[in-house]
Amino acid sequence: VEGLLTSTCYDIRIHAAKAFKKRIWSKVDEILADYSVKWHERAEQIAPICTMLLNALRSEMSRTDDVGGLGAHPPTLRRISRCAIECLTAHRSLNGQQHLPLGNCTVEDLWNMVMDMQKLGCGTSDISVDAEESGAGTSLTGNAVELLALVISSEAPLSNKDDSSFNEKASVFVGALSRSTDPDLHWVVRHSAAVAVGSSGILTDSFS
Known about the structure:
Low-confidence stretches: 125-135
Structural class: mainly alpha
Number of strands: 0
Oligomer: single chain
Mean pLDDT: 82
Radius of gyration: 17 Å
């Protein structure tokens, strides 16, 4: 599947992302509801899927429009990132930990990639953006906020009040969160902001 999601063929990537996203919710729900399998074993089932999706996300974000290329495709990014959010959230609920199964991707890599994805969704990147994805406050930027929330929640338990790197990330996240609650934005984006508040843990003791 990863080979299809990261294919050099534009059409293959698009259709692979569409097909994968169609069944992601039902499959994740099946794993979460299968109490005949131990919690940690189900988490182990989802972990490589998370890693695969993050690799696919990184591959799509790394595409450029040089030498006749089409660059990153926002709708494909939207689909892959939504699948990643569902799987990462399910993994966290199963293993009871904030640690993210990132594979070869570091937390900093993920953070920088998602920040770039948010800019692309807002139409502020140099990469061409489809009409349905252009302008501030798209479903792609909503997905980015939810991914930022997962990064924040994974780092909060390991940080302290004097951790400048984490404090900077938290500040950026709160800013992105605030922009995503604009009442003029589509409800999908505002829903992502609400979900991000809960998944980030910013209202818990970790941020006190």
